Amino acid sequence: MIIAANLKTNLTRSATHSYINELELCTQQSAQEVIVFPATSSLDSYTTIITIGAQNAYPVEKGAFTGEIGLEHLEEFGIKTILIGHSERRHILGESQEFISKKFHFFKEQGFKIVYCVGEPLEIREGSKEDMLAYLSKQYEGIDTEYDNLIIAYEPVWAIGTGKIPTLEDIQDMHKELKQKSSAPLLYGGSVKVNNIKDILHVENVDGVLVGSAALYAEHFCSMIQAAQDLH
Ligand code: PEP
Question: How far apart are the first and last CA of the chain?
Answer without folding.
Answer: 10
